[in-house]
Amino acid sequence: MEVEVIKASAEAITRAAQLLRDGELVAFPTETVYGLGGDATSETAVARIFAAKGRPRFNPLIVHAPGLAEAEPLAQFDERARRAAHRFWPGPLTLVLPRQTDSGLSLLASAGLDTIALRAPAHPVAQQLLRAAGIPVAAPSANRSGRISPTMAAHVAAEFGSGVALILNGGTCPVGLESTILDLTGCVPVLLRPGGISLEELMAVFGDIAMPTPGEKTPRAPGSLPSHYAPNLPVRLDAKAARPGEALLAFGPDAPPGFAEVAWLSRTGDLTEAAANLFAALRQLDRPEFSAIAVMPIPERGLGRAINDRLRRAAAPRPS
Ligand code: TXA
Ligand code: MG
Fold first, then answer.
1. Is the C or the N end of the chain the one with fewer CB within 10 Å?
2. Predicted TM-score (pTM) of this structure
3. Does the CB atom of residue 151 touch ligand 1 within 6 A?
4. Cβ(140) – ligand 1 distance below 6 Å
5. pLDDT tens digit string along 62-97?
6. What's the DSSP call for residue 141?
């Protein structure tokens, strides 16, 4: 099925904002590239983004807000972060900051990290949409995984089917390349991705900027960050029967008996629902009274690939 593409009139933006509030996905223009937006406070909406993109793993997403006032409750802004926002927002700069614990943001949006990437886009359509929606919007570039970022509505329409409710056409993106990502969680700002704001512009404000060292033992590459939430308990995959003291992460209707506790990813075997529940369920079971978290087999298709990728990392031997 073809997705509806509609000129970004005031009326269309109002409709798109309502769709976002209803948990649907809307593609919209920003000054950098088109984004595939969903309610960043809804695990289900965020899971739908990953499903639509066909991402084989859960890379953390950028959360969009109209400005600093709306972004501030979502993360811990120190003086440096506020300075960055005052100087470059709205605009093509994404800030990685510590998550605010009571932010209400989806755990899946930041892929279980304790940090969150935030950006206030400058494009008038994005501004109007975010203000009308009144919710933070998670939005990766609106391309399927592994394809190039879209700078026109037609690019987006060519990539997506029925998983996307609406594409707002706001013409060609003026910057045409993604936002610069700056990690402000450490002492020295780290440039995670070069983009719409140049290194020179950043250095004029911050002085020293560090680069992620290639081949570093703890690479900062997206999706392989060291601070990814890993349970304290050991994780045992492909569990078919209970071992003493184990808690079970269940998938599908038939959970084997004998576990000390069971948390369901999805009782019906729905992979989008399972993705939406993954990080909360892991946290729920990660308690010292259990010996381990056993995980039922999860099919290696669709979002199941991303879920299994995440679980394999959680089960991998830990550096001591
Ligand atoms: O210009 C842009 O930034 C566009 C428009 C739509 O805003 N969005 C975009 O999103 O490029 P995406 O998902 O294609 O790229 C987001 C990047 C990924 O490389 C991801 O790993 C990184 O941001 N990222 C997100 N959250 C992060 C975090 N907490 N820590 C480190 N990197 C993060
Ligand atoms: Mg992208």
1. C
2. 0.90
3. no
4. yes
5. 999 999 999 999 999 999 999 999 999 999 999 999
6. B
